[in-house]
Design goal:
The protein is mostly helical. It has 7 helices and 2 strands, in the order αααββαααα. It is 59% helix and 4% strand. The chain is elongated, with a radius of gyration of 20 Å.
């Protein structure tokens, strides 16, 4: 404990550098220039903070936190709800008005729009819109951004009272 190189950045700065990198895909070199440290310091900071953000998990309701796909499946099974996961980008032709499938497809489309909006929110983060990093970090990056968005949405639903 206590051995090794000391951090040149305090935790808040490491967190801020990671958030800026995830949101805007700012290069490590630019972040290093902004914080006045070496590029390797930024690389190490992001490598430490990104898994911490990923471990936070996604909040479905204030008392439920899901961290893995298995936990999501278990939650859906126990609550009796349906989950839609978008794994493809395929154009779908809509049926003409008045066809017999129109009522069923409209119902499916109205459920699917939540998934589309969720994916759109994720893709607003440059780190996910065009991932340029190492493949082994994409899982932590997706989980980190999803947990940040999840926390933000819960905060928007339950604003803290102003004093």
């Amino acid at each position: 404990m206590g051995a090794g190189a000391k951090h040149r950045l305090v935790f808040v700065d490491r967190l801020l550098a990671t958030l800026v990198h995830l949101r805007h895909a700012t290069t490590h070199g630019v972040l290093a220039c902004w914080f006045g440290v070496d590029r390797s310091t930024i690389t190490r900071a992001i490598g430490e903070v990104r898994p911490l953000l990923a471990e936070r998990g996604c909040t479905v309701s204030p008392d439920v936190r899901l961290r893995t796909l298995a936990e999501v499946v278990d939650h859906l099974g126990s609550s009796g709800t349906t989950g839609i996961i978008d794994g493809t980008e395929i154009r779908v032709r809509r049926p003409a008005a008045g066809r017999k499938d129109q009522r069923q497809r409209k119902a499916h489309s109205s459920r699917r729009i939540r998934v589309e909006h969720g994916i759109a929110h994720l893709q607003n983060w440059r780190a996910l819109a065009r991932h340029l990093g190492r493949r082994e970090h994409i899982s932590d990056t997706v989980q980190a951004v999803a947990s940040l968005l999840s926390h933000q949405q819960i905060a928007d639903l339950h604003p803290t009272p102003q004093t």
